[in-house]
Amino acid sequence: MASSTVTPPRPDRPPRPNLAFRHLRGQRSPAEFAALVRRAAREIGERVSCDARYIGRVEAGEIRCPNYAYERVFLHMFPGRTLTDLGFAPRASVRGRGARAAGDAPPAHTTSPALTTSEPRVTSETRGAGEPYDTQDPYDTHHDHEESDVLRRAFMTGGGATVASASLGPLGLAVPPPRSRPGGGTSHAPAAERRVRRVGSSEAGALEEAVRRIRLLDDRHGADGLYRRAAAPLRAAYALLDAGTTRQTTADRLHSGAGELAISVGWLAHDSGRFDDARSHYAEALATARMTGDQALEAHAFCNTAFLARDAGRPREAVRAAQAAQRVARPLGSPRLMSLLALREAGGWAGLADRTGCEQALARAHALYERGPSDADPEWMTFYGEAELAGLEAQCWSALGDWTRAARHAGRAADLQDPHFTRNIALYTAELADDLARGGRPGEAAVAGLRVLDLLGQVQSSRIQGMLAGTARVLLPHRRAGGVQEFLDRHASTPRAV
Question: Where do the record's region annotations for Disordered lie (predicted)?
Answer without folding.
Answer: 1-20, 97-146, 166-203
